[in-house]
Specification:
Keywords: Membrane, Transmembrane, Transmembrane helix. InterPro entries: Cl-channel_core, ClC, ClC-type_chloride_channel. This is Chloride channel protein. It is found in: Membrane. By secondary structure, this protein is mainly α. It has 2 domains: about 190 residues, Clc chloride channel (Orthogonal Bundle); about 190 residues, Orthogonal Bundle (Clc chloride channel). Helices cover about 70% and strands about 0% of the residues. It has 17 helices and 2 strands. It has a two-stranded parallel ribbon with strand order 1-2. α8 runs antiparallel to α9, α10 crosses α14 and α13 packs antiparallel against α14. The longest helix has about 50 residues. The protein is globular and about 75 Å long. The C terminus is likely disordered.
């Protein structure tokens, strides 16, 4: 073995060890932070439900506090998930650590006073920030994206405790149709450790085993295909409305204080009038009702879309993924009757596929289906998600996402 080859092997081993150590440390740190954030959010949700009519009138005032915090202390952190994607694509060179307390506190405020929002965006931002901070301790090419993806997997895995789905989500979300495979080991290690850490600190994983015995014959496959297309259209609708809503509201009311205060008053009234807070918060109430076969209204999924889009467009903080789970599950509970399939299975398919369509991801929602509802159901998730993925939206809930894909169905006609 020549000296040059020996040096390369030694350097490669050193890099592997450094990345592994940073992945472990990132997983531990992010696991602790997401446990604090997630448990705090659960407590806030329970407290809000118990005191809904006392807290909901103050949503507009909470909005003013959120805008003030971002105007005075955020700086670059005000871009939120946009900054994470900018880092991933080399358009930014720093994620400030103040993003973590800022996005955590403002998301808690949104949920405490009844806003309809999610939580995954916060977890991914937390993970990305910690991962970026860890990258300062190493020096090798392409470290920025590797550590960013590693941190994103840790954030998603720590909060949802679906580490394998978290890894695939982090690998495929930056660029549609492309996996950041160089980050596979780091993301896997960080995601697993973060998930175990948050669980050890008392953050419970949501699981709902679904047991069905369906043969994937032609008739069942066609049903799953039809469901996938329906869920793909629902995810597309959410992504398009969110993109349109943020732009439209900003044009109509340019002043962020006036926008969130006046809009917050209207949002409070709507949340009270529309089923007395049924659509506030994460939407876990809709998920549980859908999967358990309890009462679901035909308009639940549409109102959850509308109120989540309005909440986020006005400037309140939070993510989109858990509301997407709720939208998909409640739509699935309605469609199950029409398609003649078990309600729990179709609600589970909607849970995963609407999320996948709105985020332009394919592998992550299939693994979420396995980790939450049972791996025996993966064939059903694969078929439904394949057809949901056919409904390719021009927009995504992540405006910074890049698209480098070839057409799924190539053109039969030669180019002129």
């Amino acid at each position: 073995m020549n000296i040059s080859l020996r040096s390369e092997i030694k350097q490669g081993l050193k890099q592997f060890v450094l990345v592994s150590l940073c992945s472990i440390l990132t997983g531990l740190v992010v696991g602790v932070i997401t446990a604090i954030f997630g448990r705090g959010l659960l407590w806030i949700g329970a407290f809000r439900s118990a005191h809904f009519y006392i807290l909901i009138p103050f949503l507009a005032l909470a909005g003013l506090a959120i805008v003030y915090a971002y105007q005075h202390w955020a700086g670059e952190a005000s871009k939120g998930m946009g900054l994470v994607f900018d880092m991933g694509h080399g358009r930014a060179d720093k994620i400030p650590l103040r993003l973590i307390p800022l996005v955590t506190a403002t998301t808690w405020l949104t949920h405490l006073f009844g806003g309809s929002a999610g939580r995954e965006g916060v977890a991914v931002q937390i993970g990305a920030t910690v991962g970026h901070a860890m990258s300062r301790f190493v020096d090798f090419p392409n470290k920025s994206r590797l550590f960013l993806v590693m941190g994103m997997a840790a954030g998603f895995g720590g909060l949802f405790q679906t580490p394998f789905a978290a890894v695939l989500f982090a690998l495929e979300v930056l660029i549609v149709g492309s996996l950041q495979i160089e980050a596979l080991w780091a993301a896997t290690l960080a995601g697993l450790i973060s998930s175990q850490t948050s669980h050890a600190l008392g953050l419970e994983k949501f699981t709902f085993p679904v047991t069905v015995d369906l043969s994937l014959d032609m008739f069942t496959t066609l049903k799953l295909a039809g469901l996938g297309i329906c869920f793909g259209l629902a995810g597309h609708l959410f992504a398009w409305l969110l993109h349109w809503g943020k732009g439209r509201v900003a044009v109509l009311v340019p002043n962020p204080y006036k926008r969130i205060f006046v809009g917050g008053i209207a949002l409070s009234l709507l949340l009270i009038l529309l089923q007395q807070g049924r659509y506030s918060g994460l939407g876990t109430n809709l998920i549980e009702a859908s999967l358990a076969g309890q009462s679901i209204f035909t308009y639940d999924w549409l109102l959850k879309i509308f109120l989540t889009v309005l909440t986020l467009s006005l400037g309140f903080q939070g993510g989109e993924v858990t509301p997407l789970f709720a939208i998909g599950a409640s739509l699935g509970a309605i469609l199950a009757v029409w398609f003649g399939l078990p309600v729990a299975l179709v609600a589970a398919l909607g849970y995963a596929c609407v999320f996948g369509s709105a985020t332009n991801t394919f592998l992550a929602p299939i693994l979420i289906g396995g980790e939450v509802f049972g791996y025996a159901n993966i064939p059903y998730f694969f078929v439904a998600m394949a057809f949901a993925y056919l409904v390719k939206p021009k927009t995504s809930i992540y405006s910074g996402q890049e698209k480098r894909t070839v057409p799924i169905i190539p053109s039969c006609f030669p180019k002129k």
